[in-house]
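S1.2 Input.
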Amino acid sequence: MEIGLNDVKVSQVDPLEEEIRSFVDCVSRRGTPRVSGLEARKSLELALLINEKMKTGRDLKL
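S1.3 Output.
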């Protein structure tokens, strides 16, 4: 099995700037965001649980 190298082009963007741009676009055009409020809340809850687990080492329920 050969292992090779491939160049991957990645655009240099500021994630926060893109998030704000997407939000403004949704508001001004009455569009639908890529992520719903419920999905965002669930993601935040999971991130906070992971952070708490890392700090305490305790098992936490999802």
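S1.4 Remarks. The mean pLDDT is 89.
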